[in-house]
From TrEMBL, chain A:
Main location: membrane
Task performed by this protein: Part of the binding-protein-dependent transport system for D-xylose. Probably responsible for the translocation of the substrate across the membrane.
UniProt-listed InterPro entries: ABC_transp_permease (IPR001851)
One GO CC term, this protein: plasma membrane
Record keywords, A-Z: Cell inner membrane, Cell membrane, Membrane, Plasmid, Sugar transport, Transmembrane, Transmembrane helix, Transport
Subcellular location field: Cell membrane
Originating organism: Azospirillum oryzae
Protein name: Xylose transport system permease protein XylH
UniProtKB/TrEMBL annotation, chain B:
Molecular function per GO: ATP binding; ATP hydrolysis activity
Domain ABC transporter, chain residue ranges per copy: 9-246, 267-512
Gene3D superfamilies associated with the record: P-loop containing nucleotide triphosphate hydrolases (3.40.50.300)
UniProt-listed InterPro entries: AAA+_ATPase, ABC_carbohydrate_import_ATPase, ABC_transporter-like_ATP-bd, ABC_transporter-like_CS, L-arabinose_ABC_transporter, P-loop_NTPase
Top-level division of the source organism's lineage: Bacteria
Membrane topology: Peripheral membrane protein
Name the UniProt record assigns to this protein: Sugar ABC transporter ATP-binding protein
Keyword presence, Iron-sulfur: no
Biological classification of the source: Bacteria, Pseudomonadati, Pseudomonadota, Alphaproteobacteria, Rhodospirillales
Cellular component, GO, one term: plasma membrane
Keywords: ATP-binding, Cell membrane, Membrane, Nucleotide-binding, Plasmid, Repeat, Sugar transport, Translocase, Transport
């Protein structure tokens, strides 16, 4: 699946049958919808209860956020195993700065971000400029920063955080227009986002048509984007029935939009794909390949720091085990999302779908009361199946 | 020359489709026992597909037609089946493990073992016998990675002999060899023929074919269009070329009236230290001048330092630079990074098209835009996909890149069209100096002609071209002036009027440094 295909109607292989084409482009989204539908039935409707949807978002936000950075790292042809430990060490740092040293929130957040950037820069420097294998550098980082987490926190849980900090995870959008139990502002926000989305797609389509490009028929266009916009509104409606839009959702959405633009539209993004696709060709084409890889790791560090703060705020304490094993969920999300282990391939949309497939599986199976033993096995098999489907399609091409 | 009339291989009415695309329509191939049979055809004519069918890569049932080998019908399901029957393919890209020894490579998958343990003494002895048969005297413990490409090619042949081969298929065996190694290889083919080994050779080099082949089958657009036998038919290069491209190429090199201007590009006293041997100068005081509108060739054997010279100038990608300057239009320029080199108007088209020239999984459009993304972006940051497409469509038309559109993956293009994509990428940077490294390696006669025409257009537009090539006829046919390089130095310089193959080879052999 080429990552352009999802965003630019003109980039499509017109020879495919409509159904096949939809499966190729949106196969993962379809899989997500099927999984959601399955658990909705299997849990007698508990899955899409407003409270549970809100929880699903809160539980998976930090995975999605880190997956955005991991996508960049993996597309550039590398891997980062240290993100779980960065979550831990940044959480511990936040605990020390805010709870123990009573530093103001703003400075503490900045320091935490800088800490993430510094860790990413150190690892990126080793990988990009010293050509050390990223697997080993970040494996070392995973151990070092887990140890650092325990050292910084003194092996204790630090908390609770002041409300102003935990707001970044458990806060909700203020709602002056509440009608009964329905948070109208949240619903309106959803409608606005859906409308904006529709408008952008419409303008793109008009532009393609005006250049005699290949665009889908009006009916297909309306159906596809109407369904998408409808989903956004429905989703916000569910949330509006509970406590409205969580602040985490806003943070996550903004990051998703920014990273979609970077990966699909920016020169930097194109260069990451080129570096992962063929390092030598990228270097001969004037791309500063070392700097690209370095920046991908710095970026990963910053996003892991954001995730670390959100996670600490959600638990309302920083613990020595925070973030333990997160790297596996994040990497699994990226590969389920269709990225290639050899680099050069992967999409933001795919990664988000991948992260939520894992999230819904976790959540749905827990509601159904399936034991942790079977949960692990099922998640492992889903990862394997996703990669299998990917390889199968590639071999067929 | 003995001529056996018994047919060892008979492929009848072979057809093969990939989805809606018909790669082979009707190919017939009759190879007689003990002969060297050449297969010619433009890239994309279907030669590789045919060989993949013969070797079982495309299993029986996925193609139409019949294969008779050694008198009986064969239905190969995989490579193992065909190897078992005695068919061995030696691919253009060598399939050797560089970190293993010669012996280990020769018996890979076929180890000399007793009770699961390798009998090294027997293995090395057997390896020595095989090495002797291909004329190598290296100790069998030598790592394959330490051998040159030419010798590696011979190891591949020895590996085939180890499997008791009945039919050996060589896919462009000399594409990356220099003249001397090519010579050794062709002689070996003739020797093996004398000992009864049947070979199929796929090659674009017509002089080699006429030297070793007994028969030629020409394939065009997935069908056999001509079969010639040297003993019976009147065979000429013109006839082969005409059958391949279905048009007379009156001249293999398009004509050009040189319009030379002032000196445009100059390298002075260029010296580079070898990255793996710090006491050795890989490039030794090279001086070079190219005038506006001029095509200048660099000739030399493999390993003479031609590619290294180009790479050391273009972004200092090779070795450690210890002296010398680069000048463009009389002013010294800084080429210490690739980005700076491109900024000054240099372009380098690599010899390794797939490995370093293209992002194979990306589309034609994306590959063309890669070296000049700023030009298709607003604010130098946001890429405008529509201008990427416009630019790519423009080049696709101008350079006649054959594809269904510019969104096609370059991996699916033929070699000639891939090369045109690489050239488009560099022409899109609007270079002043175009450095071409083996620009027509492994591509067919028709596409070569088109590449030469692109070179001519570039110099007509006031650029200058520096062409590195191992094919002397190509340099003689296209260049205004030719430098000869050996062991990191320029050892000769000839104008188009003076240059002949003999003189150039003579300059290499005598190896006298050129005194400027």
């Amino acid at each position: 699946m080429s990552e352009t295909a999802t965003t630019h109607p003109g980039w499509r292989d017109t020879a495919l049958l409509p159904v096949k084409r939809v499966m190729k482009e949106y196969g993962l989204l379809v899989a997500l919808v099927v999984i959601v539908a399955f658990f909705q039935i299997a849990t007698n409707g508990s899955l899409l209860q407003p409270l549970n949807v809100t929880n699903l978002l809160l539980q998976n936000s930090y995975i999605v956020i880190m997956a955005l950075g991991m996508l960049m790292v993996i597309v550039s042809g590398h891997i980062d195993l240290s993100v779980g430990s960065i979550v831990g060490v940044v959480g511990a740092l936040a605990g020390v700065l805010i709870v123990q040293m009573h530093l103001d929130i703003f400075s503490a957040v900045l320091l935490c971000l800088a800490c993430g950037a510094l860790i990413g820069a150190m690892q990126g420097y080793c990988v990009a400029y010293w050509k050390m294998p990223s697997f080993i550098v970040t494996l070392a980082g995973m151990l070092v920063f887990r140890g650092a987490t325990i050292a910084v926190s003194g092996g204790q849980s630090i908390g609770p955080f002041p409300a102003s900090f935990s707001w970044i995870s458990s806060g909700f959008m203020a709602d002056p227009l509440q009608v009964g139990s329905l948070r109208v502002t949240s619903l309106l926000a959803g409608v606005l986002v859906a409308a904006a989305f529709f408008l952008i797609e419409y303008r793109t389509r008009r532009r393609v048509l005006s250049r005699n490009g290949d665009a889908p028929s009006t009916a297909v266009f309306l159906l596809k984007n109407g369904a998408f916009a409808g989903l956004i509104v429905y989703f916000c409606y569910i949330l509006a029935n509970y406590r409205g839009i969580p602040t985490v959702l806003i943070t996550m959405s903004v990051l998703i939009v920014v990273y979609t633009i970077i990966m699909n539209k920016s020169v930097f993004g194109r260069r990451i794909y080129a570096v992962g696709g063929n390092l030598k060709a990228a270097r001969l084409s004037g791309v500063n390949t070392q700097r690209i890889v370095f920046l991908a790791f710095v970026n990963m560090g910053v996003l892991a720091a954001i995730a670390g703060m959100i996670f600490a705020a959600r638990l309302n304490s920083a613990t020595p085990r925070s973030g333990f094993g997160f790297e596996l969920d994040v990497i699994a999300a990226v590969f389920i999302g269709g990225a290639s282990a050899s680099g050069g391939v992967g999409t933001v949309l795919g990664v988000i779908a991948g992260a939520f497939i894992m999230g819904v599986l976790n959540n749905g199976m827990s509601i159904m009361g399936i034991g942790v033993d079977y949960q692990q096995m099922i998640k492992g098999l889903v990862l394997l199946a996703a990669v299998f489907v990917d390889m199968y399609q590639k071999n067929k091409d | 020359m003995t001529m056996h009339s018994s047919v060892i291989l008979d492929m009848q009415g072979i057809e093969k489709s990939f989805g809606p695309v018909k790669a082979l329509r009707n190919v017939n191939l009759h190879v007689r026992k003990g002969e060297i049979h050449a297969i010619c055809g433009e890239n994309g004519a279907g030669k590789s597909t045919l060989m993949n069918i013969l070797s079982g890569v495309y299993p029986h049932g996925s193609y139409g037609g019949r294969i008779l080998f050694g008198g009986e019908e064969r239905r190969f399901r995989n490579l193992r089946d065909s190897e078992h029957a005695g068919i061995c393919i030696i691919h253009q890209e060598l399939a050797l493990a560089p970190m293993l020894s010669i012996t280990e490579n020769l018996f890979l998958g076929n180890e000399k073992s007793k009770g699961g343990l390798i009998d090294w003494t027997a293995a090395h002895d057997a390896a020595r016998v095989l090495l002797d048969r291909v004329g190598l005297s290296e100790p069998p413990e030598t790592l394959v990675g330490d051998l040159g490409v030419g010798k590696q090619q011979l190891i591949e042949i020895a590996k085939a002999l180890a499997k008791d081969v009945k039919l050996m298929i060589l896919d462009e065996p000399t594409a990356s060899l220099n003249e001397r190694d090519s010579d050794t290889l062709l002689n070996l083919m003739l020797e093996l023929k004398a000992k009864g080994v049947t070979s199929i050779i796929i090659s674009h080099k017509l002089n080699e074919i006429s030297r070793v082949a007994d028969a030629i089958t020409v394939i065009r657009d997935g069908s056999t269009v001509d079969v010639m036998r040297y003993a019976v038919d009147e065979v000429s290069e013109a006839r082969i070329v005409k059958a391949m491209v279905n048009r007379e190429l009156a001249d293999r090199y398009p004509r050009r009236e040189p319009k030379l201007g002032e000196t445009m590009f100059e390298i002075r006293n260029w010296r580079v230290i070898d990255p793996s041997h710090h006491d050795r100068e890989a490039i030794r005081s090279v001086n070079l001048k190219v005038r506006r509108g001029e095509v200048v060739g660099i000739s030399g054997l493999m390993g003479a330092g031609r590619t290294e010279l180009a790479l050391s100038v273009f972004g200092r990608l090779f070795g450690r630079h210890i002296g010398g300057t680069v000048h463009l239009n009389g002013r010294e320029i800084d080429t210490s990074t690739v980005a700076k080199s491109i900024g000054h108007g240099l372009a380098y088209v690599t010899e390794d098209r797939k490995g370093a020239g293209l992002v194979l999984g990306d589309s034609i459009a994306r590959n063309i835009a890669l070296a000049n993304l700023k030009a298709v972006s607003s604010f130098g940051f946001m890429i405008d996909d529509h201008s990427v497409l416009d630019v790519a469509r423009d080049f696709r038309e101008k350079l006649r890149i054959r594809s269904h559109d510019v969104l096609q993956k370059v991996a699916n293009l033929s070699g000639g069209n891939q090369q045109k994509v690489v050239l488009s990428k560099w022409l899109f940077t609007d270079p002043e100096v175009l450095i071409l490294d083996e620009p027509t390696r492994g591509i067919d006669v028709g596409a070569k002609y088109e590449i030469y025409s692109i070179v001519n257009d570039a110099v007509a537009a006031g650029k200058c071209v520096l062409m590195i090539s191992s094919e002397l006829p190509e340099l003689l046919g296209t260049c205004d002036r030719i430098y000869v390089m050996n062991e990191g130095r320029f050892v000769g310089e000839f104008t188009a009027a003076e240059a002949t193959q003999e003189r150039i080879m003579g300059a290499i052999m005598t190896n006298q440094a050129l005194v400027n």
